[in-house]
Amino acid sequence: MTVRFDITDGLATITLARPEAHNALDVATKVALAEAVQNAAAPEVRAVLITAEGKNFCVGQDLGEHVPALEADPATAMDTVGEHYNPVIRRLAALEVPIVVAIPGACVGAGLGIALAGDIRVAGTKSSFATAFTGIALASDSGLSYTLVEALGSSRAAGLMLLGDKVTAAQALDWGLVHRVVDDADVLETARTLATSLASGPTRAYKQVKSLIARSGLSDALDREAQAQTALGQTVDHRAAVDAFLAKKRASFVGM
Questions:
Q1: β-pairing, 99-103 with 120-124?
Q2: Among 221, 45, 85, which Cα is nearest to 149's?
Q3: Is 171 exposed, middle or buried (0-12, 13-18, 19+ CB in 10 A)?
Q4: Global pTM?
């Protein structure tokens, strides 16, 4: 089981449970995550907590699984964006109740997209954030072209997406990327306390708050990202970069 789901006293908890792979997202995990988010829309749920087992929240796509898809057909290798990532983000965006995200360690790529689909983010002092897509000759998915700009503004978002910079927990707090930074050992408990409080609060008022700040442009961004990733997934640079990453070598790009 790569994703655990539980409802207790109105709080739905979704846990990424693939710590041996740093919670990298293979197909099984993406399907299970989409199902868990769908289950979180149950009437008895009044708040949602998303967290992860192990030292890292999520390092994004499982590239080891991605290579066979590239070998089989580069034209369809990025279908996972529309089939798996977009449903997860759309379902998270559709949840009317507050979403708290507990972020241990690294939060990268699609993992960052998932975190930004939440409402309140709690990180540890050693947490870090990155997009990582251009490092493997891709653009972005999981809504980052919209949510990252919304969170940071276009200049900082462009810097992170183009340069692949890593953001520390302190920077993330200063920039407004996270709500709170605590000791690493306290991340889950702090987030759970916040989520539990929200689950026992004025649910209808919270729903109205979320409605008032709804992200109306996210759906269009998801569609554009899927188109871009499909095209980029067929490039020479993307395949070479994935191979280099898995071989722990530096990628060499030719611009094609």
A1: parallel
A2: 221
A3: middle
A4: 0.92
